[in-house]
Amino acid sequence: MTTVLIADDQPLQRFGFRMLLESQDDMTVLGEATNGAEATRLTAELHPDVVLMDVRMPGLDGIEATRRIIATGARTRVLILTTFDLDEYAYAGLRAGASGFLVKDAQPEDLLSGIRAVASGDAVVAPSLTRRLLDTYAHHLPTGAPTANAGPEDDDPRLAPLTDREREILTVIGQGWTNTEIATRLHLAESTVKTHVGRVLAKTGCRDRVQAVILAYDTGLVKPA
C-alpha cells in the first residue's frame, strides 16, 4: 500500500486528488495540507511514502517545504505539481530534492503511475528533461552557487569517492544518457552499467538519477548546452 499526503491550498483540487487516489486498491491518503508548513509538519507525523506537493501555497511554499522534508533524511519522496511542463518551479523543486514533477493537467493515469514510480524509488522525470531544465534556468542560480563553469581544479568533495570510471558514468548520466546508451557508447554490458550507476548514487548520496544529473551539473562535470 502506497501512502500519500496531499499538499494543495485549493479544496477542490485536494478533493479531486483524494477521490482519484482512494479509488485505487494500492493507495491510501494519510492526510491533507493547505500550505507548506502544514505539509512539513504532517510529513514528520505521518511518514507518507509520497507527498503530492503543490508549489504555490500561502506562507511556506511547496519548494521550501520540499527542501525541509528532504533535509530531514526521511524516506518520504516528493512529487511536485506544476502548471507548466518546463518552468522555474519544476527546476527549483528538483534542486530542492523532489523526485520528479508532473503538470497539473496530467491525465489521471499519469498521476497514478507517477506516484507509484516515486514510491518505488524511481524518478518521474527523464534525466534529459532535467538537463534541459537546468540549462534553461541556470541564470536563476544565486550568486556564489555552484555552476558548471567551475574548472576541474575546483573539484567538489562529493566527487572524491568516485573512481575514474564512476566519474565518467556520472558525467554521461548528467548528459541524459540512458543505461542502454551508456552501454552501447562505452562498450559495456548493461548489467555492468547498472552496477556502476548504483555505486555512483550510493557514493554521492543522490536519491535517484535526477539528483545525479543535478550533481553532475553543479560540480562542473556537465556544462550548459
UniProtKB/TrEMBL annotation:
PROSITE patterns: HTH_LUXR_1 (PS00622), HTH_LUXR_2 (PS50043), RESPONSE_REGULATORY (PS50110). Pfam families: GerE, Response_reg. The keyword Phosphoprotein applies. Gene3D superfamilies: 3.40.50.2300. Keywords: DNA-binding, Phosphoprotein, Transcription, Transcription regulation. Coiled coil: none annotated. InterPro entries: CheY-like_superfamily, NreC/VraR/RcsB-like_REC, Sig_transdc_resp-reg_C-effctor, Sig_transdc_resp-reg_receiver, Tscrpt_reg_LuxR_C, WalR-like. SMART domains: HTH_LUXR, REC. Residues 3-119 form the Response regulatory domain. The modification 4-aspartylphosphate is found at residue 54. SUPFAM superfamilies: C-terminal effector domain of the bipartite response regulators, CheY-like. It comes from the Bacteria. Residues 155-220 form the HTH luxR-type domain. The keyword Phosphoprotein applies. Transmembrane segments: none annotated. This is Response regulator transcription factor. It comes from Streptomyces plumbiresistens.
